[in-house]
Design a protein that fits this description.
The chain is an alpha/beta fold. The protein folds into 4 domains: 4-124, 3-Layer(aba) Sandwich (Rossmann fold); 128-150 and 171-210; 211-377, P-loop containing nucleotide triphosphate hydrolases (Rossmann fold), CATH 3.40.50; 381-442, Alpha-Beta Plaits. 43% of the residues lie in helices and 18% in strands. The chain contains 17 helices and 14 strands. It has helices at 4-10, 24-27, 36-48, 73-86, 99-109, 116-127, 131-148, 173-207, 224-232, 275-280, 282-289, 305-319, 338-345, 366-378, 393-402, 424-434, 444-451, and strands spanning 13-21, 53-62, 90-93, 112-115, 213-218, 249-254, 260-265, 293-299, 326-331, 356-357, 381-388, 404-410, 416-422, 438-442. The chain is elongated and about 90 Å long. The two termini are 50 Å apart.
């Protein structure tokens, strides 16, 4: 049996309007690099993400934004006639509308109107599964609703009587609604502070193990969850739809030489992401800030892949994520035609240094990616040769728990020789407990010598000299 909201969405005849300023390209706006058709397809995809019955769409080029209706008078009249003829119940405007513009368009169209922000909030509200996700979505909804309280409806202009025998002017309904919303916002923010503290405790407990953190980020529908399942053999929902993943998921990731990391799948980004969503989901996005390595997953088969990459880079920069921790991953290699694949193999397609081409669906290139993750995590760590007595099972167990055991051999006399990779904060403890026959700092250059095959060679620049160790945060 379908949920009531799903049944309602399927019966909602929807029309998508995509008004884009022609001056954006000249002004260097981030969204200007996008092909208009690709932007329209994304807007329709957002509407279909909550099962709306999309009956059509229009691309409109604007010279300027009209304060009253966003669109020009002639275009509003044309759309109003179309809405009436097609019996449209909902008009989705792929832009950010002011409350006044939204109200005026609803009067002209005689149907419900929502803007891009409202649509994304509806999607997030539908997809939230955990209590944390629901709280974050509600917080964003309330921030959005609070901005809409501008006497849009007549009931907001009524006044309630004050307390006391004679009464008084009291407060208007709009003031009451705004106060109630603010009180709810404060309660949710207080609860989310508790979530942040809980996450901080979980991160502290993981650092004692220790497991480095690897976070997946990228544009929505870039294939993050499919890659997450491929790397961890998990069964996270992976669907060909926008915002299939909303609640963060973490699993153990096994690395090629026996090490391990925590892999975190996060919510997808999108162009013009509402600021209240970024603020509301900051508790979740802190996992990205705390990550040792960030994998930026790109859908290389998408016609707007470069523009999508720019949107993600912009959000990461706003969050304060250092580019030194980011590895770019080109996903959906299986969707490319032969010419495009050969172009990547020949190094003709532009990318950052060290970008990796993979297919999360078929597994192509995944081993190279795992090697690159291990290489990046190894930077700043130290290789140590140790010899243990064959009866020191407790010490061997400690090494497996607190270091990466790269190699292990047992001699005829029963003594155990191991080569381990040690994080800086554990190095002194290892030296005090076991002694060390040889210490070899693991720089970017020495790590690469052991994992060069993990790189996607056609995408690398030729080495001209030693590479300095990358800074780790």
């Amino acid at each position: 049996m379908r949920r009531p909201e799903l049944a309602a969405a399927l019966n909602t005849r929807t029309y998508v309007v995509c008004p884009y300023l022609s001056a954006w390209r000249a002004n260097g706006d981030r969204g200007a690099a996008r092909a208009p058709e690709a932007r329209r397809e994304e807007a329709c995809g957002l509407a279909r993400a909550i099962d709306l019955d999309v009956r059509g769409s229009s691309l409109i080029t604007l010279g300027a934004i009209r304060p009253a209706t966003y669109l020009g008078k002639g275009k509003v009249e044309e759309l109003a006639a179309l809405v009436k003829a097609e019996e449209i119940d909902l008009v989705v405007m792929d832009c950010a509308l002011s409350p006044v513009q939204q109200r005026n368009l609803e009067k002209e169209f005689k149907s419900k109107v929502i803007d891009r922000t409202g649509l994304i909030l509806e999607i997030f509200g539908r997809r939230a599964r955990t209590s944390e996700g629901a709280m974050q979505v509600e917080l964003a909804h309330l921030a959005y609703q609070k901005s809409r309280l501008v006497r849009s409806w007549t009931h907001l202009e009524r006044q309630r009587g004050g307390f006391g025998f004679l009464g008084g002017p009291g407060e208007t309904q709009i003031e009451t609604d705004r106060r109630l919303i603010q009180e709810r916002i404060i309660r949710i923010e207080r609860d989310l502070e508790g979530v942040k503290k809980t996450r901080a405790l979980h991160r502290a407990s993981r650092s004692d193990v220790p497991y480095p953190i690897v976070a997946l980020v990228g544009y929505t529908n870039a294939g993050k969850s499919t890659l997450f399942n491929r790397l961890t053999k998990a069964d996270v929902q992976a669907a060909d739809m926008l915002f299939a993943t909303l609640d963060p998921t973490m699993r153990l990731l096994k690395l090629p030489h026996g090490g391990a990391a925590i892999l975190s799948d996060t919510v997808g980004f999108i162009s013009e992401l509402p600021t209240m969503l970024i603020s509301a989901f900051r508790a979740t996005l802190e996992e990205v800030l705390a990550a040792d390595v960030v994998l930026h997953i790109r859908d290389i088969s998408h016609e707007d892949s470069e523009a999508q990459s720019g949107d993600v880079d912009g959000i990461l920069a706003d969050l304060g994520v250092s580019a030194e921790r980011v590895i770019e991953v080109w996903n959906k290699l299986d969707r490319l035609d032969i010419d495009h694949r050969e172009g990547i193999a020949a190094g003709q397609t532009r990318s950052r240094d060290g970008a990796l081409a993979v297919s999360a669906l078929t597994g192509e290139g995944v081993e190279r990616l795992l090697g690159a993750i291990e290489e990046r995590l190894a930077q700043g760590r130290t290789l140590v040769d140790l010899t243990l007595d064959g009866t020191d099972g407790q010490g061997l167990h400690w090494l497996y728990q607190h270091t990466e055991v790269m190699q292990r051999e047992t001699s005829d006399e029963g003594r155990i020789s191991v080569k381990v990779r040690v994080a800086p904060d554990k190095l002194e403890r290892v030296k005090r407990r076991f002694g060390a026959r040889r210490l070899e700092p693991q720089t970017a250059l020495s790590a690469r010598s052991g994992a060069r095959s993990a790189r996607c060679k056609p995408l690398e620049k030729p080495q001209t000299g030693p590479t300095a160790p990358a800074k780790r945060r």
